[in-house]
Each structure stands twice: as C-alpha cells, then as structure tokens.
Amino acid sequence: MPPTFAPPTAPSIPVHVVAEDGQEAFRAALPAAHAKWLEQTGFRAGLGELRLLPGEDGAIAGAVAGYGTPAARARGRFHLAAAAAALPEGTYHLRCDLPDDTRAEEALGWLLSGYAFDRYRAQSGATAALKAPAGVDAARLEAIAAGEVLTRDLINTPAADMGPEALEDAVFALAAQHGAEVGAVRGDALLAQNFPMIHAVGRAAAQAPRLLDMRWGDAGPRLTLVGKGVCFDTGGLNLKPASSMGLMKKDMGGAATVLGLAHMIMALGLPLRLRVLIPAVENSVSGASFRPQDILTSRKGLTVEINNTDAEGRLVLADALALADEEQSDCIISMATLTGAARVAVGPDIAPFYTGSDDAADAIARAAAAVADPVWRMPLHAPYEAMIEPGIADLDNAPKGGFAGSITAALFLRRFVSAAPAYLHFDIYGWQPTAAPARPKGGVGMGARAILEALPELLAL
C-alpha cells in the first residue's frame, strides 16, 4: 500500500529532533530523569542517533533523534528516515523546529522509510507512522511517495513477471486509476504504423514489442514523457557478460520512473495535458535478432547503422521521440537507464541530464536542490556530433572508441526532437546499490521529484 501520514487526531508520541549544537539547551529543558537518561546512555545528538525516553509507567514517553551538524547533514538526505526505521511500531509526531527547506524532505523520507518490496517474501519497512508536520503539503507528499513506490515496485520485479506484457498491464492499471486514455501498438503492427526500430529491437523476444501511449488532461500546456521500457537486456547478439547482465531487469527504469512521475502529476490534478510514451521490448537473442552492421530506417526517416546491438535503448526511444515530436508539446522529457558512461561520470546517486535550454536547466537545478533530488547538467557538446555520423548511414548507434558515451547517446536522441520549446533527457541509473535512509537496496526513482517541482517553469518556457 502507498505510504500515508497518520490521522492528525490520532494519539501520538513526540520525537524531539536535536542538533549537536542544541543538545545542552535541550537537556536543560527536560525533566531531570530524562536529562540524566540521555547523559547515562551517551547521547550526543550525532546524526542518526536515537534514544527512547521512558515514562513512569514503563511506556515510551518520547524519543530523541540526533540531527548532527550541518556538515554531517550535507553528506546525505532523509536523515529522520533512519530514526523512523529504528522506532517501535506506533504513531509519532515531530516536536522540533526544522528549517522550512528540510521539513518536507524529512516528512517524505519518513513516508518512504515504510517501503519494502514484499512480492516474493513477507517483509516490511519502518512501522512507525508519522503525523504530517505543520507547514507541509501532506497530500502532495503522499502523492509523491505513492509515485515513488510504483517506480520501485516496477523496477524490483524480475523480468519473468515484468516483461512487455506486464509493463503494458501496469500502464493500463495506472490509466484506469486516474481516468486516462491508453492504447498500444503491438508486434508487426509496429511496422504498419511506422515504428521500425522498436520492432527491430524487440522482435527476437518471446513477448511482442509494443508502444504504449497514455493521455490524461484536456486543458493546459502539453507535457510528453518518454520512458525506455527495455524489460530485460541481454545485449542482443553483442551479448553482455554475466557481470553486466545481472541487473538488467532494471533496464526499464526509465519507463518505471516516468510512470511514477505520471502518477504524481495525475494524483495532484495538475493543470496540464499529459502524454506518456513507453516503447516496451525485451532485447533477446534468436534467429530474428537485429545484427551488427544492419542499417535501420527510423520513424523520422533517419538511417541508423547498428554497431552494437547492446545500444538498443536509444533506438526504441528514437521512434517514440519522433512520434512525440509530431505533436506540438511545450516540453518533452525522456528518461532512460541508457549508458554505463553516465554512472562512471556521476555515480549511482545523481541523475545526469541534458538540455539545450539554459532556462530549463536552471529550473531543474533549482528544483532539485529544493526537493533533495540530486541532478547534474551534462554538455551537449556540438563537436562530438561527428562521432555519431558513420558515413554509411545518417547515425551510428554506438560510436567506437568508448569516449563520451553518455553525451553521444544524448546527441543521438536530440536528432529526433526539433519542435518542442524544451527537450530534456535524463540518463538515470534507477538502482540503489547499498541501503540508505528511505532508500533500501533495489529500484529507486531518480529525477522525478525534481521534474515535478520544476514543471511550472518548464511548461512556461
């Protein structure tokens, strides 16, 4: 179930949040027994420290969560989620004066601390419920948390249960939940309706490739989200080694993230017209596999030389982006687990993004800082355009040499978008490699909260 805040009238236990420089004043204001208890247990208000305060009847009278120093807090986010995970089951409220710029972040982190992927094994996240702190938009945070849960569940589900058919089912279920319209083009109908590269990438798999197209809203600016839905990526005939194939269930992380973002937008009833396009395929190996040195003609008419069948994500995105570009949108955003080069550049915790609009980049950067969803703008370096031009065809899907792999992929995708005032591409990882507060190991959303926060500016460009 999506996480929610506890009812505001429910009986609750106070959680005092104390920074290191405020612990002496805090102890001085406590009853003597509680102050001594903190002293005797060695509480120093370090980030992540937690102490329960005993009541005279043996019940929990309160809790004290250490909030550390500004320098310690700068090295992470969602700090109170660690306290939530350590608290006994019950209902709590925050008794502190958190800064305005962190109150919503900490409340969202508490909500997300309750997440656990339990489809295949009974387990649970934090069981400590929180009343919404004063000054936060509880409904907005609950919608964001629900969208993040959807993203995580989709990514965490293995490909045996999250192939193109199941991803389609997830899109139809989301559309039904919000009264959206959705359609699908499947199998050889992709060729009839001019989506040749989606068909080429997915035709070797047991489940037919498809393009999923969801629409919601009938007034306001137009936003189109395009998510890479490669439900499993073997690499095709350029077969991945086992070490690289192990996490490929997450190669539909772009689709999962745009669906989570779409849920946020629709649940909040934002005044816009939303379109979500997801090319859903599995990149498999059979006699029908597309081959190195094949030349594919895209929906836009640009020809693409295949120099690596493992660079398939940009191919399916290209056809979907070409479709998006045929209809005037105010903003087009693509999200994909596209390149390992992006992880080498910024690691697993930052969502690198590309755009030719300085105004769009500034809007995203401000929004990302405001909602603790780290992103980093990468350059669309024009001199590298020659690297994606092989000579025998208009474009090369995998330039040789290994340099600037994320940049050349973004330059490739940009060739298929020309009409929108703003186009942004996010090259995300979609996976939390080690557990952190509010983020267990596994699938995770990246960039969606920053985009949501920036939408008013992006759609006004």
Characterization of the model:
Helix 5 (100-112) links the parallel strand 4 and strand 5. The chain is elongated, with a radius of gyration of 24 Å. 34% of the residues lie in helices and 20% in strands. The strands form four sheets. Strands 6, 7, 8, 9, 10, 13, 14, 15 and 17 form a nine-stranded mixed beta sheet that branches. Strands 2-3-1-4-5 form a five-stranded mixed beta sheet, with helices on both faces. The mean pLDDT is 97. The chain folds into two domains: 13-136, 3-Layer(aba) Sandwich (Leucine Aminopeptidase, subunit E, domain 1), CATH 3.40.220.10; 142-458, Zn peptidases (Aminopeptidase). The chain is an alpha/beta fold and 461 residues long.
Protein topology:
Elements: E1 13-18, H1 23-28, H2 32-40, E2 50-54, E3 60-66, H3 70-73, H4 80-86, E4 90-95, H5 100-112, E5 128-130, H6 138-156, H7 164-178, E6 181-186, H8 189-192, H9 196-202, E7 210-216, E8 222-227, E9 229-233, H10 242-245, H11 253-267, E10 273-283, E11 295-297, E12 303-305, H12 313-326, E13 331-336, H13 340-346, E14 351-355, H14 358-371, E15 375-377, E16 395-396, H15 405-414, E17 422-427, E18 431-432, E19 442-443, H16 448-458
Parallel strand pairs: 1-3, 1-4, 4-5, 8-10, 8-13, 9-10, 12-16, 13-17, 14-15
Antiparallel strand pairs: 2-3, 6-7, 7-10, 11-12, 14-17, 18-19
Helix pairs in contact: 4-5, 5-6, 6-11, 9-12, 11-16, 14-16
